Amino acid sequence: MAGLLDKERIIARPGFSRWLVPPAALCIHLCIGMAYGFSVFWIPLTKALGVSQGLSKSIACPPDMSWIEKLVTTTCDWDKPMLGWMFTLFFVLLGSSAAVFGGWLEHAGPRKAGVVSALCWCGGLVLSGIGVQTHQLWLMWLGSGVIGGIGLGLGYISPVSTLIKWFPDRRGMATGMAIMGFGGGAMIGSPLADRLMKTFATPTSVGVWETFLAMAAIYFVFMMIGALAYRVPPTGWKPEGWTPPPAQASNTMITTRHVHLSKAWRTPQFWLLWGVLCLNVSAGIGVLGMASPMLQEIFGGHLIGLDVKFDQLDKDQLTQVATIAAGFIGLLSLFNIGGRFIWASMSDFIGRKLTYFTFFVLGFALYASAPSVGHSGSVALFVGIFCVILTMYGGGFATIPAYLADMFGTQMVGAIHGRLLTAWSAAGILGPVLVNYINEAQIKSGVPKSAAYDTTMYILAALLIGGFVCNLLVRPVADKWFMTDEELAAERKLAHDKAQADAVSGVGAQGAGTASSPMVVAAFWALVGIPLAWGVWQTFQKAQVLFH
What we know:
There is one protein chain. This protein folds into two domains: about 1-60 and about 90-240 and about 485-540, Growth Hormone, Chain: A; about 250-485, MFS general substrate transporter like domains (Growth Hormone, Chain: A), CATH 1.20.1250.20. Helices cover about 70% and strands about 0% of the residues. It has 21 helices and no strands.
């Protein structure tokens, strides 16, 4: 008898509602999306040791202390750059683990991958909590950075192939719903973590390690609910009333055949799409990494109605400006999330290639015009430009799985998507490095802070030209790369795919063949919808300061 986590046990019976699958994916993505919000811990952690000793400030490390010594020291507090390496570990491990384990996921199924993701992500939080309590930074890096990063990769790609197979008529919308959750995870996790830290804080504790343990428990429950709720459609299933378009009438960019993972990464189409994702994400990450200081330094006192530069503001005025910049970050996160669903859904109608064409052409125009808009003093127009840019940053993540399914078929799209996410890892290094070093070089050369971002914007615009060329060169995959009928049958056997007749007769399938109750579907959506709505409301409240 198939085990609880085996793929044979999660083949859906007749009457199962496919609308139960997106909230299952959201249960996982809303939890692992907290990776975006980890910066909420940085300031408390920079003074954790000082507070534990009854001080109200950090205990600084000696200037000559080495990088290695800082990983194991128990005599001084960590600084933000050392803590910030967690972000690099997150996204490097996300991409690399998705690439390494993508093939295994296709054979093992989304439920097993989801459970492993929950164990890694939540176990990593527990280990990080131990690292905070014992003041060992290497344990935090290992726990959340490495082990948690592997959980990120598995959790991120676990629903992709399944959703595309459940929604062959709306591939973009389906993946957009799930990947929207990854963008929304920080909107829920950041204010939740802030409240938990305040609850657990004492005169001798900043409350971070307790918060890690509490969030690990909460996330584990949600992620296990999502993983155990996963179902896969039987081979040959299609939505009731939907008929695939005839081959001769269908878009030549959408194949009905399948490419094996071992061949997909050797095609020019794979590397062109790798470039498309990497360059689009590099530009977007560059903006996210500098959004707050950029707004403050470009507009300075104009943000609070004063005609003075940023360097001329006093302490209270700087606090007001920083609050407005935090609202700007919140607004960007809302547009990032909305773009994931809206652009991916729109791609079902206008096509993936045209969607990315829009990203690169419109994005180039917006990046190139941002410096002149900044110098004009129009805060509203400047903010609007970057809100639109962030919709396309999020939309790029959500649209790429459907683009891959169009090009390479659905049989191994999850594994292929995993390999492609190495582009995200590369972008996570390229974007911030470009932005930070160029900006620093501009300031050192004497360029005023209000103008130091101009060159950066033009370079990010140039990255989009490269992405435009990559997207323009994408053509249908050559016939030689597709699996033969025999190879496809062998792969489906390895992937434990069952024929439709088996599922209908109940062979190996889990649950009775009765229709899913609308009340169950509604309740499952409420389980993920209510926290997401709360996160949106919290973020909107922070962003309101921009409108005063």
